[in-house]
Every structure is written in C-alpha cells, then in structure tokens.
Amino acid sequence: MTAVSNTSSHGVADTVSNAIATPGKEQPYGALGLKADEYAKIREILGRRPTSGELAMYSVMWSEHCSYKSSKMYLRQFGDKVTPAMKKNLMVGMGENAGVLDVGEGWAVTFKIESHNHPSYIEPFQGAATGVGGIVRDIISMGARPVAVMDALRFGDINDPDTARVVHGVVSGISFYGNCLGLPNIGGETVFDRVYQGNPLVNALSVGVLRHEDLHLANARGVGNQVVLFGARTGGDGIGGASILASDTFSAGGPTKRPAVQVGDPFAEKVLIECCLELFAGKLVEGIQDLGAAGISCATSELASNGDGGMFIELEKVLLRDPTLTAEEILMSESQERMMAIVTPEKLAGFLAVTKKWDVETSVLGEVTDTGRLIINWHGEEIVNVLPRTVAVDGPVYERPLAYPTWIDALQADTASVLPRALDGETLREQFLDLLGSPNLADPSWITDQYDHYVQGNTALSFPDDGGMIRVDEESGLGFAIATDANGRYCQLDPYRGAQLALAEAYRNVAATGAVPAGVSDCLNFGSPENPEVMWQFREAVTALADGCLELEIPVTGGNVSFYNQTGDQPIHPTPVVAVLGVIDDVARRIPSGWQDDGHNIYLLGETRLELDGSAWAGVVHDHLGGRPPVVDLGKEKALAGLLHAASKEALIDSAHDLSEGGLAQALAEAVMRFGVGARVWLGDICGRDGVDASTALFSESAGRVIVSVPREDDVKFLGLCAGRYIPVLRIGVTDNTLHALEVQDVFTATLSEMRNRHQSRLPAAFA
C-alpha cells in the first residue's frame, strides 16, 4: 500500500509562536538528559526557549549516543593519523552511515560495527534483534546489498541465574532476525565475565557489497527535491525519554509510558532491502538515510546538514501505527524498518511505483529548500525552526577530566610470574583440559549453531575458523575476510597495550585466512565518561588504536562509542572491540584453521616469552588478574601477515591458526578438533630457543604467533619465505590422521574424544 496522508488524531503541539510568547515556561530538559548549561546553549542558539519538539530533537541528538560529545575530541585522531597509502582504497570514511573500501574489479565493501548494549539487558530478544536490524540498515543506506553479519557478545558470570535469561534472549534475537533476513552469520566472539553481569555487551556487525557506481550517501541536495519516508509505520516503541514529554508536559490524553526498547520485524526489513536495491538500480534516489537512533529527528537533521542546508517537513503526513502519538513522540520514535530518501520530483512517480510493487508504505513528508533551516510543521503550525547543523553536527564537545587510576599500579605489580607453574605432565594435562572446557575457550557451537552460516551460498569460511570469508564475485572468486577481537582483561591492566592487542589479533586472524587486511571498524565499550579514570582509559585505548592503525597502514572507516556501561558505580572492563576486514583475490585459496591431511609438518611462527599476565591460564587455573599484557610489536605483525599472504598465494600452507587466548595449547587443540586429524608435537625446541619452561610454552599468550601446517614437499620453499622475511620459525610437530589425539611428546596425550567432550559440553550444560 502507498499513501501520502496520515490518519492520526490531531494532538495539540507547542508551536514556535507559542515558544516566543511564553519564554519563561518551565521545560523538563533534565529528565531528557540535558544539563542546565546545554539547555541554556539551546536557548542561546535559538534566541528563545525551544518548542517541545525542538527540545525533543536537541535532547536526543545531543545525547552521548548520537553526538559523541565526550569522545569526539579523541576520535579525531583516526582522521588525523593517516597517510596517503591508508586513503588509497578508502572510498568513504568516518561520518557516514558506514565505511566503504574499494576491493578491486569495480567492487566495494561497506562494513560497520555498533553496540546495542543497554536495550539487550532490558529486553534481550528485541534488544539484540533490533541491533542486527539497525546495523543492516546502515549498510543498505550506502547503496549496498547486505551479505553477512557477525556479533561480539559479552555476558556475566556463566553460573549466575540471570546470565541464562540474557544469553537465551540475545542469541535468539540475533538468530531470529539474521536468519529471517537470509544473512549468514560468519563469526564473532562470546565472552563470560562477572564484570558484565549487569551490563552485557551486544556489538553487531554487518557487511555489504556494491559496485562503485551504486554508492549512495546521506545528504539532501537539490531545492525542490522531495523528502520521502518509507517502510514500517511509526509507533511508540523506542521512544524512552519522550514518554516524559508526552505524559508530563505535552498531552494529557496519550499513554503515560512508551516502551524504551524497539520492536523489530525482519520480514519487513527483508522486503525493505529488496525495495531499496530496486530503487538504487533504477537511479531513483538522490540521498538516503536509515532511521535508527533518534528516528525522524536524526534523519531530517543529518540529511539537511549534509546537503544544501534547508528542509521543510509536514509531520502529520507520517504514517502511524499508533494514532495517539504526539508530534514530539513522532520526532523521537525509534520504530524499526524505516528509511528516508531524497527524490527528484520527476522521479517521484517511479519511486512510488517501486515501493507499491514491494508493498512498502510510503509518505511524502516535504521537500529540500534553500532557507538553510529545518522547518517542521504539525497540521499547519510551525513546531520546529532550527539550523540543522546545530542539531546534528555542532552539539557540545566536552573535554572531560582525566585521572590516572589510583588502583592500576598495584594491579600491574601483582604479576602472574609469582603463580606456580606446573612441571609434571599430569598437572599440565589437567590444566590443558580445564582451559579447553572453560567458558571463554569452550566450543561456542551451542550459540553459533543457531545461526545460518551458509545462506546465499557465498560463505567460504565461518565458525570456527580464525575469520569469516565471503565471496563477492562468482566469476573471479574475489572476496573479503573479517574478524572481531577484544580482551577486556588486558585492557583493564593496560588500556593502551590491550587495545593494540585487540587490533593485532583481529589483523592476524584476517591474515591467517590468506586475506590482506585493508580496514578497521571499532566499537568502543566503556564506563561512564563522567568518571575521570574511565576517560583516561578511553583516551589511552583510542590513541593506541590510532597509533596502531597508522603503523599497520590500515584506516579506521567508522564505528561506535558506547559509554555508561556499568552497574552502579562499577564500570565494565574497558572493551574496545576491533573489526578488521581484509581482501582476498580468490576465495578458492582460503586457509582454514585446522589441518586436514596426514604427514604435514607443523610450524610455529613467532617467539614465545614468559607472558602469562592477564592470560586465560592465570584466570582459569589461578583466578588471577594482574600484571601487564603481552608486548605488542606491530611491525612484526605486519611482516607475519605479509608472509601468510605470500605463502597462501604460492599454496604452501594448508592451515593457519593464530595464537591468542589459551596460547599454543588451545591453538593445537582447536586445530586437531577442526577436522579430527591428530598431531604429534614437541616443546623442546621452543623451550630451548626461547628460554621458557613447558608450562609457558603451552599457555603463554605472546602476540605475533601463528601455527601453520605445510606439506613436506613445500618445506624448503616455505622456510625460504620465512628466512627472507626474517620471521622466526620452528618445526614443532607433524599431523597424524591415525592418532586421533594430541600427543605432546614427553608431557601428555589427550585423545580427540576427551578434548571434544570437555570443549563441547560447557555451554550446553549451562544453557541447553
């Protein structure tokens, strides 16, 4: 059905003329999250008090979530610390709905990761589902077809009863929405830690592909062009703070409380995707913006700010699901599955024909103007008259106080070097199995099996490989790989080094698939910005990522900041989640994480040091967190990635698996379990060359390391590549498909069945 009129009741709204006539009227700015000085600034900008509609718009657009007012001054580093080489393949960077990279052959890939943390604790199913829906619409708005999703999840203590409530809801929400959209879920992480007990993290990522000529941006240009809202009707879900406006200030007749969490409909979004793609193919859209956080307030102000600067809207033409909504609630509603497009008058009929074909409801709300102002009317009366940049761009920027944490020196002094390390094989074997079955190293299949990994038929790699991989072009085999990583324990010990370790691991995971890392998106999860110690952590992490990307020569294309992740006064561990995307010229040469053939040599690339601080071994075996995280050498990470790419191009390696949480022991176990092919391994050369004991050789989490399997006939070539690139390499074992076990020579043997039993039973025991 297509319509251009509304059927809502006519509520009384606060008009601009009324605001001028009643300058002293009290307004609930504090209840909407605005500070007294921010409210005063709004009055200064307008030269009067804001109308209720304007107050609603400013309050939501100046929120931490939309304005980045506490983080903006640090995020600028991502734009400042760049080189021409980093910009070479960057088609769209920060500031748009998602970053876009040129991946060759006329193709581009767009990707972004965002948080939906707080809604996912309040209502886990809908919070997580709409997190997926929102990030997918960001991808659509760039002109791309979404082709994959991923998620980085962090929950509370696995033994806490409330964790099961959140886990079941979040996982069901993600699987429901993603599976209904027909998008493969190709990777991510799941972490359990009591620091996330009252504040889980749900970070959703989506990737889309497009031809260069199909790129679209969020701007409103061309005086007289039409502003069109299409998709689902607008309801009362997701309004949150606007309920205060409705019940306490503006209307006595409407509902007194609106739901704070959005409600998603993946089937409506699937239709919206196909409708948008047909509109793009027909060249019927000049600019486009999805409606997510802040709804119409965000879409109109951002489109106008990025365009010619003027827009006129008749708000009563918005199609409503709930006719009792006030004008202020319509402006702030975060109802899902909606888009706003800018369409030339001569193409409007064609646009409406396409939306009618897909049965997508559509309303023409107004037009682009040359006034330089965003003007919104409600039944003929002016309720908003603002400079759009003051709403969407020029919000407050805070230089929050910073404080070096009073507790961090003592935490770093409490190193894992004082913890007893086992020397006998039986104890090492038990610790190995305990780690294998611990919540954060256990098989996540109970979760990931609820996701479809192969729908659309282009998935080349997925769980449990180091990175997901999608084919972009069927003829050439061109594709991309992507991985997400973070380690809150490391960042609690040292946010600078911890953030760079997350970047290094995601970069290494992508390289281990055979792809060349090309770009970064990040989701920065922290406590309250009003806590000076949290702001110090945030500054350190952002600086680390900007410095790290500069050294690795890959740009940050966009991302998200999520503050106020804490329970009471207790913040979560700083958790910067880093997503790295890489390009591969032919997915046929992808590298899985486990070996499949008998008699291949196993090599360890990189060096092992006594680096157990913050490790999984320290946490699981000793319930310990202290010391300093492993040293990061991004130059060596870059050289290692270059080696893996070269070896992949020459088909010299059959598997590659990075070493991170759980160290060498975990990587070997996962490589054995991947395809059920056993291995005989020896530690003597590692201990001798690197000066470490067997426990350290097994459980150290030194960065810059990968295990690979190499056919014997390719040994000489492979070792020559390592020598030419100055990569430390040791032959540490051989694959054996008759063994059905991991045999660590002179230390212990663990059978395939007992490893799988420990590895696969932990999550089902907690949640099934």
Low-confidence stretches: 1-9, 241-258
Sheet with the most strands: spatial strand order: 8-10-7-11-9-12-13
Q: Count of helices? A: 29
Global shape: globular
Distance between the termini: 43 Å
Task: Note the main sheet.
Answer: 7 strands, mixed
Q: Which structural class fits the helix and strand makeup?
A: alpha+beta
**Strand segment tally:** 28
- Which strand-content bin applies to the residues? 15-25%
Q: Roughly how many Å is the radius of gyration? A: 27 Å
Helix content: 25-40%
Overall residue-averaged pLDDT value: 93
Tell me what the structure shows.
The protein has 29 helices and 28 strands. The relative contact order is 0.13. The two termini are 43 Å apart. The model is unreliable at 1-9 and 241-258 (pLDDT under 50). A 7-stranded mixed sheet has the order 8-10-7-11-9-12-13. It has 768 residues and is an alpha+beta fold.
Write the layout of secondary structure elements.
Elements: H1 16-21, H2 36-46, H3 52-61, H4 64-67, H5 72-75, H6 77-80, H7 84-87, E1 90-92, E2 99-104, E3 107-115, H8 117-122, H9 124-140, E4 145-155, H10 161-181, E5 185-192, E6 201-211, E7 226-231, H11 242-250, H12 266-281, E8 287-290, H13 295-305, E9 310-314, H14 327-332, E10 338-343, H15 348-357, E11 362-369, E12 374-378, E13 381-386, H16 388-392, H17 408-413, H18 425-436, H19 445-448, E14 459-461, E15 468-471, E16 479-485, H20 488-493, H21 495-512, E17 516-525, H22 532-552, E18 556-562, E19 566-567, E20 570-571, E21 575-584, E22 601-605, H23 616-622, H24 634-649, E23 655-658, H25 663-675, E24 678-681, H26 684-690, H27 694-699, E25 706-710, H28 715-724, E26 729-736, E27 741-744, E28 748-751, H29 752-767
Parallel strand pairs: 4-5, 9-12, 17-18, 24-27
Antiparallel strand pairs: 1-2, 2-3, 3-6, 4-6, 7-10, 7-11, 8-10, 9-11, 12-13, 14-15, 15-16, 16-21, 17-21, 19-20, 22-25, 22-26, 23-25, 24-26, 27-28
